[in-house]
Amino acid sequence: MRFLFGVARDCVTPQALIAGYAEALRADGVSLERAFLLTPTLHPDVACLTFTWRCDVADVQSIERSWAGVNSTEDQDSPLRRINEGTHVVIRRGHPARLPRRRRARQGRLHRLRRRGDPRRRPHVAPHRDQVEHASPSGFTLRDVELCLASKAWSAPLLDAHIARQAARKLLAVYVGANAGARVVAGVFRRGDGGSIRAAVRCTDMGDFTALSDRLPREELLELLNAYFDCVLGAVYAHGGEVLNFIGDSVLAILRADDDAGTACAKALAAARDAFVRAVAANAQRGERVPIEFGTSIHVGDVQDGNIGGPRRLDFTDISPTVNLASRIQGLCRPLGRPLLVSEEVARAVDAACEDLGPHSLKGVAEPMRIFGPR
To answer: Which long-range contacts (CB under 8 A, 24 or more apart) does 19-26 make?
Structure first.
């Protein structure tokens, strides 16, 4: 209890709080060997987060569990599922060898715990999302159980606050990007808040999307869009980039330059080529379905990001001449018959073989710009 009323509030991560809480229980005489926390989260790919503390391991292990994983047969039979659903107040389990034979088949998790160490281990599960294990042959004493349950009531609000913050950051990362999401959670959320960075900007757009949206049934159109996004976004992430915005079928992504614009441009070019390779592989598997086709442009420069919008509705986005020029260059992909175009600044920065396609007038730009096509 002294830990929960004192230094627990200074823990900056759920891992630190869980480790401190477990060690405090041990200091109060509970022979705790392992503690486990499972909590659901709001995320399209991650169903829940799990945290595991062990007395013989330095760091708390944190795992993101996918929706497919939590719906497996093994998890359906796990006592942890019933705890998470709140259908049991307290579950206590003894050594698997002492369980009735008909119940052993449902205790696969307990068998794995036994194989990891002391064959005398008797796991004991505390209520709602949490599991703690005792190494003593006789298991937890009544005092141990009461202490765990009483202290849990005080630790739960602290854990919930940490996990809610972490879930908010992860959910924001899905919708506005990892960097922008972290900044919003950190306090950059007022209209006008933002900053400036130097980055290689990639703008990607599907070919003939308007005509496709008129012609294809809704299900086929969504399948094509998601297959296209898989190719483009997967390549961006693989090369360390960030996806900033979707505008229909258009994707705006950046690779931060920091002090080295050449490296950022080279990564952006590699990510673009990777996306085309992924599209070729995906089209080979698509058979007679509409192929994935798109054009990409790359420009480099200063980018201003921040919150824009009106009352009760803001968007954290990037607005700058650099972004506008990248979009305008992308619009030349179809007229020039080139799937990949870069600005003169990018061509110089990467020092790669590029074909000079000459100066071109861009909408809203006073002077013609020289456009290059990487070989």
So the answer is: 19/53, 19/59, 19/60, 21/151, 21/155, 22/53, 22/55, 24/151, 25/132, 25/147, 25/148, 25/151, 26/55
